[in-house]
Design a protein that fits this description.
Elements lengths: L1 H13 L19 E5 L4 H10 L4 E5 L2 E4 L3 E12 L6 E4 L10 E17 L6 E4 L2 E11 L10 E6 L2 E6 L2 E3 L4 E6 L2 E6 L2 E3 L3 E6 L2 E6 L2 E3 L3 E6 L9 E6 L2 E3 L25 E6 L2 E6 L2 E3 L4 E6 L21 E6 L2 E3 L12 H16 L11 E3 L5 H4 L9 E4 L6 E3 L23
Parallel strand pairs: 1-2, 2-4, 3-5, 4-6, 5-6, 6-7, 6-8, 7-9, 8-10, 8-11, 9-12, 10-13, 11-14, 12-15, 13-16, 14-17, 15-18, 16-19, 17-20, 18-21, 19-22, 20-23, 21-24, 22-25, 23-26, 24-27, 25-28, 27-29
Length: 427
């Protein structure tokens, strides 16, 4: 009966409507048939145990440092990995001689990992693939340095259903510290991400809520992306009550991998929130502070990849639609961060600010407006002239609020970015 109750709780939490707030009560631990306990120095036994686990097993890991090449758990039900706390039970993968990932979890149903730090793998630190009813709580993923030699993702559920990530911490990922990809039903809450390329990324994922988090010291704080060539389209994402601040660091994504035409390598230093090629996204009641390139960017795939139109299919549409932005607190410092001048997308953002100020001397060298919209709409596909055909809805009170970058004409004689938010202002 207890197991049924926890599964019901997870499903209710993770599939809440994007426009309805849903609260859950933490469930008590169910009873597991098999209980195993290990301590530091028993790494070989732990590795063997993970490979031979049976359904309904809990593994308790005592406080201390554990060193592994890699670990794997696959094709099981009702499994829990319980450490003594994320600052107490530490899995170190820095001496890996084989495999790229730290802990890989595949095809699990009802999986809980709690109270562990994973650090310094050659690839992703915690990858959970094709699994269902997942709870990741009180988990840290860290690399000592922030550079392109690190794995792409810290906490990385992909192609999953019903995921909860809470009270976690991620640092040093060369793509996203907390990443939820190609998943249906996800919650990221009360977590922190620092010194990654992207603090948190929701990619090709639907029915996701991101709230009560802090993302700071990254290249970009929070990303909602849909990319081409993946198994599903994302959307129905809402982010609220987050503190997204001081994301002004250099972009160290891997060239030729995460830095491809539509990947996170395009995130400009100084980005608070980036919405790219996705739909039905609500960004509200967040503190978006001192992200000194753009507080919020709304962009289409065409902004970073001119061939995006060739990639349209049931899983991908390059133009962002049905985007709501309201009641956020936004502030920006007096200058661009230095790394933006060395980044290709960053240079475009700098050029937009310069163009606005050159066209309107009354701006007196004002900063780029908080919300940067590339201005690329479905009009370019339908050959229509709708004023706001993609339902961009903005309700904010800041001065210097908005710029339509007129991105399809950047660099041409007719380029005319403008600050008229009226067509996008809604009740």
């Amino acid at each position: 009966m207890k197991r049924i109750q926890i599964l019901q709780t997870l499903v209710v939490v993770a599939v809440c409507s994007v426009m309805v707030s849903c609260k859950s009560k933490p469930a008590t631990d169910p009873t597991y048939t098999t209980k195993l306990t290990f301590g530091p120095g028993e790494e070989q036994k732990i590795n063997e145990a993970f490979l031979s686990l049976k359904d309904s097993s809990v593994v308790y890991l005592k406080e201390g440092l554990y060193r592994f090449d890699n670990l794997s758990i696959a094709q099981l039900k009702h499994i829990k990995i319980q450490g003594a706390g994320k600052d107490k039970t530490i899995f170190d993968f820095s001496s890996q001689t084989q495999g790229g990932e730290g802990l890989r979890v595949t095809n699990l149903k009802d999986f809980n990992i709690n109270g562990i730090t994973l650090r310094d793998a050659k690839g992703d630190l915690l990858k959970i693939n094709k699994s269902e009813d997942i709870v990741i709580a009180d988990v840290s993923t860290t690399w000592k340095t922030a550079d392109s030699s690190n794995g792409g993702y810290g906490i990385y559920p992909v192609m999953c259903k019903n995921v909860v990530i809470e009270n976690c911490y991620a640092e040093g990922a060369s793509d996203a510290g907390i990443y939820v990809g190609q998943t249906v039903g996800a919650i990221v809450r009360r977590s922190k991400a620092y010194r990654n390329v992207a603090g948190c990324e929701i990619e090709n994922t639907s029915q996701a809520e991101v709230y009560d988090n802090e993302f700071w010291g990254n290249t970009a704080g929070f990303l909602v992306f849909d990319l081409p060539g993946l198994s599903q389209r994302g959307g129905h994402v809402k982010a609220y009550n987050n503190h997204i601040h001081d994301n002004n660091e250099r972009n160290f994504a891997k060239a030729g991998s995460f830095g491809t035409a539509t990947g996170v390598g395009n995130a400009a230093p100084g980005s608070g929130v980036i919405i790219l090629s996705t739909s039905d996204v609500a960004i509200y009641k967040n503190k978006i502070i001192n992200n000194n390139g753009s507080s919020i960017t709304i962009a289409s795939g065409f902004f970073v990849d001119p061939t995006s139109g060739d990639k349209i299919n049931d899983q991908y549409f390059p133009i962002s639609r049905n985007i709501s932005i309201y009641e956020n607190e936004m502030k920006m410092d007096t200058a661009f961060p230095k790394p933006i001048y060395e980044h290709r997308t960053g240079q475009v953002i700098v050029a937009i600010e310069q163009a606005l100020n050159a066209m309107d001397p009354a701006r007196k060298n004002a900063r780029i407006p908080h919300i940067l919209y590339d201005g690329i709409s479905t009009n370019m596909l339908t050959m229509q002239k709708g004023i706001n055909p993609d339902s961009i809805c903005i309700r904010q009170t800041e001065s210097n609020l908005f710029v339509n970058a007129d991105a399809m004409r950047i660099g041409t004689k007719g380029w005319a970015p403008n600050t008229d938010v009226t067509p996008f202002t809604c009740k």
